[in-house]
Write a structure and sequence with these properties.
single chain, 266 residues, alpha+beta, Alpha-Beta Plaits, 10-stranded mixed sheet, globular
Amino acid sequence: MRYFIHIGYHGTKYSGWQKHPGVLNVQEVLEAALSGLLKTPITIIGCGRTDAQVHASQFFFHMDVEKEWKFDLFFRLNKILPDDIAVFDIIPMDGLPHARFDAVLRSYDYFIHTYKDPFLGEFSALYLEKNLDLDKMKAAVALLPLYNDYRGFCKSPDRNEHTICNVSSAALFADASGDKLRFQISANRFLSKMIRIIVGRLLDISRGKMSVDEFESYLISKETPAIIIPAYPQGLYLSKVTYPYLDLAPRSTFSSILQNSGWLPI
């Protein structure tokens, strides 16, 4: 029987979702917990990959279990998992749906705060910037859904079968004081570090180091710059994953400090 597991995790302590030897990762923690509870080796397939220190307020993985368990797996799994990984739903699925390949839409949020705050350090990216040029940043964000080849926003484009990403929406928000920013983007797929590279370019635009036209030129020419500096990882959240047959509201709403910031569209 195939099951989809709906989870969320705070990624600060982890070297990403993907299993790698010698480093702490979310996938391996979950596989170890499930294998111990179900008394059989369990391999799981995630809906995507997140980088080191990146969070997920909504994430799905699937697993195949031959023999149904006779206990409350939801309760026991949450009990033994660390506090920074939470299970929200265990969903039996008909057939063999795929957590990664069947996803039709993924949404991410990136949070920035521009002043030092001890309560935001692990939830948002600190950039000590004054007088952000929000109008120019907004103009660049508006260009993103107009193009679909993001080769110029990928460090290693040749590692991908292709660099086409169909961005359906992109928006920029700020709190009333303008001290905190929230960048949202949705697409069918994303390239490695693509969102963090975009945010890094938006900050360069605000600083006057890049024009909006130059930003657009990378979307048009599809050329990868010699030097690419992604934005910090801790501001990034995978916040929504949608399937043709499964569209659940996220159970986690980031931190209350971020969620209740009174976000206003720019």
